[in-house]
UniProtKB/TrEMBL annotation:
Residues 284-305 are annotated as: Disordered. GO terms for cellular component: nucleus. Residues 78-273 form the MAGE domain. Residues 294-305 have a biased composition (Acidic residues). This is MAGE domain-containing protein. Gene3D superfamilies: MAGE homology domain, winged helix WH1 motif, MAGE homology domain, winged helix WH2 motif. Pfam families: MAGE.
């Protein structure tokens, strides 16, 4: 049976940004969704994302000197760039976005104005936000993530990103990392890193058909997902739901570590993982000490800012 499609509304009539077709079962709702059962994993608030810094008055003044049609085209080109990256679940690097979109107008030094207006237009038309890496992650993850941005809607998050099977797997992996991971001495204490061995042991405990060891090149097939755990881990890493790192070790372990990626922080958040763990364990309320730790971390971040 063919999948229903809907069209995201065009930005404005005769403007540069074109409507984009997306499949209902990936991002949208169809007419029969009233009878669908959706698994929601993100009832608790995710991590806070800082907004863009407002453009300076002199930047706004320079932008106002451009012909209206030129400025409008730049804003819509940036908006279309955001949409395409968001639909592909790709991260955005601010510098590359400016390079790709601004072209010869980059020298006018008005990029912050174009980014600001495109961001507001994205929110007004589609309800999507441009989210940045949460503050608590800086210093805990590789420097390459610092300038990355993500397109999404924090009010309609993870359960719209994958099918429910991949949702469950990702939440399980995040739960294992958060609860069994350890703080590494070479990073700040905000994130826990979990070894590949611990993750695969946990997977094997749940499903004995999955090997307790990673198989290079794949092969740990997961029933019902039509894929193997190695391929899905690679996909989660590519989309910044997880971060993979390899460190030098003195034993026969792989040295491969995983931690929460920025997209997981923005779409799920540490607090949700605490509640999710309590639900899995059949507890009515999560461990209050774990919630206090998150509150203490938030207070420390506010003081640093």
């Amino acid at each position: 049976m063919p999948k229903n499609k809907r069209r995201l509304p065009a930005v404005e009539e005769d403007e540069v940004v074109e409507a984009v077709e997306v499949e209902d079962d990936e991002y949208g709702d169809d007419d029969n969704d009233d009878n669908d059962v959706k698994l929601l994993f993100t009832q608790e608030a995710p991590e806070f994302s800082e907004s863009f810094v407002e453009p300076l008055e002199k930047e706004v003044a320079r932008a106002s000197e451009l012909p209206g049609a030129v400025k409008s085209k730049l804003v819509n080109d940036m908006l279309r760039y955001f949409i395409l990256k968001g639909l592909g679940k790709e991260f955005i690097e601010k510098k590359k976005a400016v390079d790709d979109v601004m072209g010869e107008y980059k020298k006018e030094k008005i990029a912050s104005v174009i980014l600001d207006e495109a961001t507001k237009k994205l929110k007004a038309l589609y309800g999507w936000s441009v989210m940045q890496v949460p503050d608590f992650m800086h210093g805990s993850i590789p420097a390459k993530f610092k300038g990355r941005m993500y397109i999404g809607d924090q009010a309609d998050r993870l359960h719209r990103r994958f099918d429910s099977g991949q949702n469950g797997l990702l939440m399980f992996l995040l739960m294992v990392i958060y609860n069994k991971g350890v703080i590494r001495s070479d990073t700040r204490a905000a994130l826990k890193w979990c070894t590949e061995e611990v993750i695969f042991k946990a997977m094997n405990d749940v499903d004995g058909t999955i090997s307790s060891e990673a198989k290079r090149g794949g092969g740990n097939e997961i029933y019902g997902l039509n894929s193997d755990i190695e391929s899905l881990l690679a996909r989660f890493v590519e989309q910044d739901y997880l971060i993979r790192d390899k460190v030098k070790v003195d034993d026969d372990s792989s040295g491969v570590h995983y931690t929460l990626g920025p997209r997981s922080a923005l779409e799920v958040g540490r607090k949700q993982l605490v509640f999710f763990t309590a639900n899995i364990l059949g507890e009515q309320e999560p461990d209050p000490t774990m919630l206090r730790e998150l509150d203490d971390d938030s207070e420390e971040e506010e003081e640093e800012n």
